[in-house]
Specification:
- Strands 3-4-2-1-5-12-11-6-7-10-8-9 form a 12-stranded mixed sheet, sandwiched between helices.
- The protein is of the alpha/beta class and 341 residues long.
- A hairpin with a 4-residue loop joins strand 6 and strand 7.
- It is globular.
- The chain is built from 12 helices and 12 strands.
- The longest helix has 23 residues.
């Protein structure tokens, strides 16, 4: 099947004791998914069977050694077994060193498959930072692990939905450290990366990018802070001089209303909550986390492992379904861009 029609998307199972196995079974039980993509799960067959059983599903799980062996049919899940745990000893919501190690193995295996061109994109189910620590990992999450595995030096997190896309200059750090971290160079780099990604991964020929201010009212001519005049505005000016359609710094209290109304294709935000609070107000159920700057395509759910409801059949697969479709669409856009150049 032509990649432009149905790309192969590798789905990492995430934390085996979180809601990842459940939402995979729910999502792949939908007849429309295989119309958009060819899914391959990198995970654990026994754990997936346990998740399917608790929901009363009759879905078939088939072990394969490589993606080309998949059947990609509704009613059947093709699984590359990167772990073989005894499901009887798996307790939902109770991570162990073994389950932590397994979820890291799923990511590494999928990344290697993507780098080798065996799969066209990766969609990741949620992992847990504490579980990574139990597994003695040096990484705090997906993004850092994927960047190291792929050798990416410049990358950024985008949260994307039908109405709003936000990209973060800084991610997980105390607010008191954000101002010290912001530089003209790192803001300009994120603007440039956002522009390139919107063109090659989202098929937007001429992206219109808004850049948020850092202080209330975007500093109000330095009355409430000088980050706008000294750091953000020069970064935007440099990006514009290079041919990028960017505006800012704009007051965040009005910017997101206009962005969600369609005026901008993405908003570059200075810190985590500045972007994620408005995003999740709009796209809590269908938002997608995608990593820009990697040599591979990676999308993810925008929620965590939800240990409190794991194993209860109450999880919502909406974000995973959106992540799968976005991964396939990005793969199609990338392939189209390659064919046109």
């Amino acid at each position: 099947m032509n990649k432009l029609h149905r790309p192969i998307v590798g789905i990492t199972m995430g934390d085996p004791v979180g809601i990842g196995p459940e939402i995979i079974c729910m999502a792949l039980n939908r007849p429309d998914i295989c119309k958009h993509l060819r899914p391959v799960v990198i995970g654990d067959i026994a754990v997936l069977e346990k998740a399917a059983d608790l929901q009363g599903m009759t879905i078939s799980l088939s072990g394969i050694d490589s993606p080309e062996q998949g059947t990609f049919e509704h009613g059947r899940i093709d699984v590359i077994a990167a772990s073989r745990m005894d499901a009887k000893f798996i307790q939902w919501g109770k991570p162990t060193r073994e389950t932590g190690r397994a979820m890291i193995d799923y990511i590494n295996r999928a990344t290697d498959l993507a780098l080798a061109g065996k799969i066209d994109a990766i969609a990741t189910c949620p992992i847990n930072k504490a579980a990574m620590k139990l597994a003695q990992s040096n990484f705090h999450g997906h993004t850092e692990l994927l960047a190291a595995r792929t050798g990416a030096d410049v990358y950024a997190m985008m949260m994307a939905g039908p109405r709003l896309r936000v990209v973060l200059v800084t991610i997980h750090m105390p607010l008191e450290a954000v101002s010290r971290t912001l530089t003209v160079q790192n803001i300009e780099t994120v603007i440039t990366l956002t522009d390139r990604s919107l063109k090659t991964r989202f098929g937007i020929a001429r992206p219109n990018i808004a850049v948020a201010g850092f202080n209330p009212h975007a500093g109000e001519e330095d009355m409430f802070g000088s980050e706008e005049s000294q750091i953000i505005r020069p970064a935007v000016s440099n990006a514009v001089a290079s041919g990028i359609e960017a505006v800012g710094p704009l007051p965040p209290d009005t910017l997101f209303y206009h962005a969600a109304s369609g005026r901008y294709d993405a908003v570059v935000c200075m810190y985590h909550d500045q972007g994620l609070i408005p995003f999740k107000m709009i796209h809590f159920a269908d938002g997608v986390n995608t990593t820009l700057g990697l040599p591979i395509i990676r999308t993810s759910v925008d929620h965590g492992t939800a240990y409190d409801i794991a194993g209860q059949g109450r999880a919502d697969p909406g974000s995973l379904i959106a992540a799968l479709k976005m991964a396939a669409e990005q793969a199609r856009c990338r392939e189209q861009t390659r064919l046109e150049t």
